[in-house]
């Protein structure tokens, strides 16, 4: 135990030394953060589009109607049998600033943004996730060609930090992406579902491993096509209950 404590102290000192030499930049405005140790600058912290308690019970998107409990998008999906996951959570509404922050994270190697995203997930939903009692946290996988180009899976970076904070196992190799697809950004829900149909599967090497309750992690929930396809793959493999959490979600009830 004493060795472990000393090891943690050494890691903490090294972390402070590295941050002093290479100051952390705000994940929103990219300015140097002061004081050292914070994950976002004070100005941007005050302007974050955090989703409050008035949110869709299905996907977690902000609701703008006092009567509705489920957003329009989820109502339409349920009518068409396209909502196989149970509960969804998102920390931020997908605004221009959040979009730019996630783009930096995904495409410009700003991997340290994962610390900020995971911290906000823990602050906002940590206790709720514990109440859902997932057996494991699984990131939405990317195709190996995307990983080769980028060098990392952005969802996996967040998932590992979230799992560490919750003390829940994180499995990076259970769910895999078996088909490379077009980028989803400018596609409709119907086009997205066709585009990623059968794009995900449980690894054949891991098929004998069974999880009952899974929490999926992704960066952005746009129409839900990716989460839906991942959920179906997990349920097909024997999972009984799938929830998800994303950094941001595109509002749809305006």
Main β-sheet description:
4 strands, parallel
Global morphology = globular
Multimeric state of these chains?
single chain
- Helix fraction? 40-55%
Q: Compute the gyration radius: what is it? A: 19 Å
What is the typical, i.e. mean, pLDDT? Answer: 88
Number of helices: 9
- What's the total count of β strands? 6
Order of helices and strands: HHHEHHEHHEHEEHE
Q: Quickly give the structural class.
A: alpha/beta
Give the amount of beta strand, in percent. Answer: 5-15%
Question: Which residues form runs of ≥5 with pLDDT under 50?
Answer: 1-5
Distance between the termini: 54 Å
Strand arrangement in the largest pleated sheet: 1-6-5-2
Structure description:
- It is a single chain.
- The chain is an alpha/beta fold and 254 residues long.
- It has helices at 2-21, 42-46, 72-79, 96-107, 113-132, 144-150, 154-166, 189-195, 225-236, and strands at residues 88-93, 136-139, 175-177, 200-202, 213-221, 241-249.
- The strands form two sheets. The protein has a four-stranded parallel beta sheet. A two-stranded antiparallel ribbon has the order 3-4.
- Helix 9 links the parallel strand 5 (213-221) and strand 6.
- The protein is globular, with a radius of gyration of 19 Å.
- It starts with a helix and ends in a 5-residue tail after the last strand.
- 38% of the residues are buried.
What's the SSE blueprint?
Elements (H helix, E strand, L loop, with lengths): L1 H20 L20 H5 L25 H8 L8 E6 L2 H12 L5 H20 L3 E4 L4 H7 L3 H13 L8 E3 L11 H7 L4 E3 L10 E9 L3 H12 L4 E9 L5
Parallel strand pairs: 1-6, 2-5, 5-6
Antiparallel strand pairs: 3-4
Helix pairs in contact: 5-7
């Amino acid at each position: 135990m004493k060795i472990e404590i000393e090891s943690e102290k050494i890691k903490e000192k090294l972390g402070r030394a590295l941050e002093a030499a290479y100051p952390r930049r705000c994940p929103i405005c990219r300015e140097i953060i002061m004081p050292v140790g914070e994950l976002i600058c004070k100005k941007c912290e005050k302007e974050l589009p955090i989703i409050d308690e008035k949110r869709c019970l299905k996907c977690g998107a902000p609701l703008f109607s006092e009567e509705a409990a489920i957003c329009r998008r989820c109502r339409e999906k349920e009518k068409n049998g396209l909502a196989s996951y149970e509960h969804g959570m998102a920390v931020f509404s997908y605004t221009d600033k959040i979009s730019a922050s996630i783009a930096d994270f995904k495409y410009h190697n700003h991997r340290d943004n994962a610390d900020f995203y995971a911290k906000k997930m823990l602050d906002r939903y940590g206790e709720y996730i514990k109440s859902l009692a997932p057996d494991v946290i699984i990131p939405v996988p990317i195709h190996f060609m995307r990983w080769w180009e980028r060098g990392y899976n952005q969802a996996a970076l967040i998932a590992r930090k979230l799992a560490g904070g919750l003390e829940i196992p994180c499995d990076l190799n259970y769910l895999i992406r078996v088909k490379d697809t077009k980028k989803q950004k400018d596609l409709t829900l119907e086009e997205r579902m066709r585009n990623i149909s059968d794009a995900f599967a449980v690894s054949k090497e891991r098929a004998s491993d069974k999880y009952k309750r899974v929490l999926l992690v992704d960066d952005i929930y746009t129409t839900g096509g990716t989460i839906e396809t991942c959920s179906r793959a997990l349920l097909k493999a024997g999972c009984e209950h799938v929830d998800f959490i994303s950094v941001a979600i595109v509002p749809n009830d305006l």
